[in-house]
Every structure is written in structure tokens, then in C-alpha cells.
Design brief:
About 30% of the residues lie in helices and about 20% in strands. With about 350 residues, the chain is an alpha+beta fold. The strands form 3 sheets. It has a 6-stranded antiparallel β-sheet with strand order 3-7-1-8-10-9, with helices on one face. The protein has a two-stranded antiparallel sheet with strand order 2-4. α2 crosses α6 and α6 packs across α9. The protein starts with 7 loop residues before the first strand and ends with a helix.
Length: about 350
Amino acid sequence: MLKRRLCEAVFQWELTCKGPLLIRDERYAECKKGTKKDGFPDCLFISHISKKELEAVAKNCNNKPPKMLFYVPGTSIRGPFRALAERIIRSLLPADVPPHLTACNPFEQQDKKTLGCSTRLENGGNNRSKYATACSACKLFGCTGLASRICFTDADIGSYNSVYREMVGIDRFTGGAFQSDKGGALMRYHVLENTEFTTTVTVINFELWQLGLLAYVFRDFENGLVPIGYGKTKGFGQVKGKITEITLTYPAIPTHIEHMGSLMTSSTERDYYDISACETRSFKHFKTEKNDGLSLYQSVTVTNIDAFWSEIAPFFNKHVAKLQGRADKLKQQTKEKVT
């Protein structure tokens, strides 16, 4: 499906975290440094510096928290983002709906009724594409044998306060402070406070219901409901995100909202991928970007983001109703086989 670029949606996403944020740099554990008794932290925030430079920082980080070019990896945003999207899909459908119609468990490899898409799609066995038979979550985020439609860029952190947060570990048997020969109960974390960073979220060859799903996910992030990074149960990573720009790209200037299905040239191709043609809906709150004459594609920018989400979100609701209809049909077929 990615052999052709039919459409693309790009979201500029600004995130802020007033409290502590921690994305651990696992290279720090391999560096030579002093002990916790000497004030060395348990971990450092991930940065762009080389391993050799990190070695030098690790030897002196007990004096004061370091200041470097820190960043948030795209994978640290993608994980919570996908988990929330799966939760939304499952919450809007009854629990007895098969996971291949909602959001599968990617790690399930034993139970044939609840196999994850990575395992379930290995053998194929039908005349439809893997995309057509994958669950709704894997259609957007991908699985083994099916490329992801969505990607997240790494986000450099511009402004921040570099601090140490100290906590006391609890012994689960005694209920008191945890005692250890390697530093006692004290835990020292290197965190960043008052951080601001921007990432770019790109969806290639999208369906409108997928953008509708993103509307709900972005809204929950905007309301501060989704933490990211390490130490979520400690109160770390309470972020808020706001979309500042949306750009849609098509082969030609669109006259209405379109997606991959309406841009496919044949009904046979749409049936193979199980994608319906797009219903006509006039473009509103958009402006056309200037084409320099070298690009084969035409971009439009959303001028009213809230209005755009209001127009797009219902497509996801219709997709959920479609999945419910398929589940009811499957249940009826099962009853007929039994009788």
C-alpha cells in the first residue's frame, strides 16, 4: 500500500510538561561513575551526546544536574499514543467483539481466538490483503508483515530546568525503607521540569476514520490525560499536547475531503484492501499552499483546527458502527452453524 503516495496528513504537535519528565538514557548504566552514597543519580535523561561525552558527564554529575541537548524519542510518544488509541477502540465496542475487529493484543500467540495480528496474518490464506484482515489498530500502527501508516519524529527539548528528584524506596515485606548495600533506600532521578518540545506526526495513505481516531487521541493529550516516559506511577510525565498546524497533501488540489479509497483507481483495488470510497464533503477552513512547480503533489493547510476535528471525528464513529455490524453478523453466522 505504500508503493504509491496517494495522500498524506502532517500534524505539528507541541507538548509541554510543567512537572518532572524522565526518559532514561540506558547508556548511563554502562558508564564508569561513583556510587549513590557519593550523590550520583540512578539515571540520566536521554541526550544527543556521544557515548564518550556521556562518560565524561557521568564522572561529575554528582555535583549538579547536567545541562545538555536533551530530546524525547519518537518511540516514547508513539507507545502511549498507540495504547490510548487501542483503549478508545475497545471502549466503544462490547467486550465480546473479537479482537481482530477492534484492537488485538500484539503479544498473544497461543489462543487462536485472540491471536495478535502479527501471528494471525503470517499464513494469510485468503484473497484479501493483510491490511484488509488486520485489526483497526494495526491498520494504522502496523504489525509484523504490515508497515505502519503513522510515524513520530524525535523532539528536541528547547527550554527546561534540569533537577534531581530524590525518593525513598519502600521494602514490600517490612513496609519500611528499603535497605541495600549499594546506597540504601535513597533513589535519585535526573528529571527535566518546565519542558517544551515539538514533534511531527505523519500519516501516509490514510483513511478518514483513522484521522477521526486521531481527533480523540489528540483531545485526550490536550486534556493532560496521557503521561509519557518513565515513572508514570510517581507522577512523572504529565504532559499536555496541542496541535498547531495540519497539512494535507494530495496528487491534485482537492475539491472535498478525500482519503486513500477515493483516490484508488479501481473498485477491485478497494475491495482487495477493504476500503470504501469517500463520501463527498466540501472543504471548509482550508487554504491551498503555493506549489513551486517541482512538486507532483498539492498541499492544503487547515485554517480552523477545531472545526476540522468536528468534521473528521464522525468518520471514526461510522467506522465503529461498521465494526459492530460485522461483529453481529459473525455472531449470527456462529449461531446458525451451531443449530
